[in-house]
Amino acid sequence: MLDFLNTKIEFFGLHFSDYNIRVAKIEKSKKEPVLASLGKGRLEEGVIKEGRVRDETSLSLAIKRITGNIEGERLGTKYIAASLPEEKSFLQVIEMPKMSREELRKAALYEAENCIPLPIEDVYLDFQVIPGEKKGHLDILVASLPKKIVDPYVSSIEKAGFSPAVLEIESVSIARAIIEREEFLEPTLIVDIGENKTNFIISSRGAIQFSSFNSMSSESFTKEISKERDISLSGAEALKVKYGIEGKEGERNLSILNSLSGKLKEEIEKYLAYYDSSSFLLPSKEKKEGIRRIIVCNDGASLKGLDSFLSKELGIEVKTGNPFSNFSKGLLDISEKEAQNYVAAFGLALRNFEER
Q1: What domains lie within the chain, and their CATH numbers?
Q2: What distance in Å separates the CA atoms of residue 240 and residue 30, rounded to the nearest whole number?
Q3: Which pLDDT score is estimated for 134?
Q4: 37, 43, 155, 209: which has the fewest Cβ within 10 Å?
């Protein structure tokens, strides 16, 4: 959520995780934005750990290597919109009187000191006005990260020969990519099941209202199947993808994953209840609505039957997110399953099409 440049420039999305880097560039076309470039690469173990950069030199070399081996069109720009780790971020919705943007920036900084659990001089901070008029005040989403977390990402990007145009917490990018534009105002819970963690993201009124994460992951599903069936991790992954939790073989997987799926259900119920009991209010003339839709995305979305299982258990619509909700994949040969792993990178690239 940090803009380093005020001018309108073209950039590509670069998403970091503890294990991978993924690159995406989306370009304008006459009808809709089109995916133009893709790239991915594995990171050596320990280069990034739990969202913290441990080896800037290795990370910068990885960025060079991956951006130099792109599928589709050449990137053609040195500017990057890069992700920042969810697990190191702090998001808070605060209420502020109506004022000019410059006054709001100063006032938000002052108010943020009361809610950020670190000295203000040790963090980078940005804010977003949440859409929706209220009588006499505004709702502001404040986002902050420690400088000691952000600076190594910036340094690594610059050592690789690029310039950071935007740094953004990954939950914001995920929501931009996976929620269809016409539905972005509706209260939605995104369950982003990645390779090493699961993000729980509440979006409403066109902005992130809350995010959290836990250590449950797509990998933990695979490890559980591997352990109980006494097969290799690659064999367990193949069974998970082929059968999911549907049909006869899928039912066996479901019985193995029962404790994990039950834990996932409990976590979702916790966040649904949190939203219902919180002070996230719509404009005063409207009545607050509870969350009535859940979107599952990222690697965990490849578990067949997970959406219908959760929908039945929770009594709420649960659907697998469409990574191509807000753009066309054009001529690039990428399946929806593979595209799930690029959701955050897509969201970063789509930032090109927002007014700033």
Answers
A1: 1-86+147-180+322-356 (3.30.420.40), 183-321 (3.30.420.40)
A2: 40
A3: 65
A4: 155
Q: Any idea of the CA torsion for 114, 115, 117, 119, to the nearest 10 degrees?
A: -40
Q: Which amino acid, one-letter code, is at 213?
A: F
Cβ–Cβ under 8 Å, residues 116 and 125 = yes
Residue 30 burial (CB count, 10 A): 5
Cβ count near 62 (within 10 Å)? 22
Q: 97: which 2 tokens?
A: 């009187």
Per-residue pLDDT tens digits for 192-245: 999 889 999 999 888 888 899 888 888 898 999 999 999 999 999 898 888 888
Among 201, 205, 210, 220, CA closest to 297: 201
Phi-psi group of 206: left, alpha or beta (phi > 0 → left; psi -120 to 50 → alpha; rest → beta): left
Name the DSSP class of 44.
Answer: P
Backbone angles phi, psi at 222, to 5 degrees: -65, -45
Query: What is the structure's pLDDT at 282?
Result: 46
Pairing outcome for strands 163-169 and 2-3: antiparallel
Instruction: Give per-residue pLDDT as tens, 130-159.
Output: 876 566 778 888 888 999 999 999 999 999
Mean pLDDT in the chain? 88
Assign 57 to helix, strand or coil.
Answer: helix
Do the strands 79-84 and 12-16 form a parallel or antiparallel pair, or are they unpaired?
Answer: parallel
List phi, psi (to 5°) of 296. -100, 130
Which single residue is written with the structure tokens 């269809």?
180
* pLDDT for 281: 46
- Judged on CB neighbours under 10 Å (0-12, 13-18, 19+), 135 is exposed
Confidence at residue 72, expressed as pLDDT on a 0 to 100 scale: 95
Check residue 74 and give its pLDDT.
94
Run of H or E including 53 = strand 52-53
Contact 91, 1 (CB under 8 A): no
Write down the pTM of the prediction.
0.90
CA distance linking residue 72 with residue 56, whole number of Å = 28
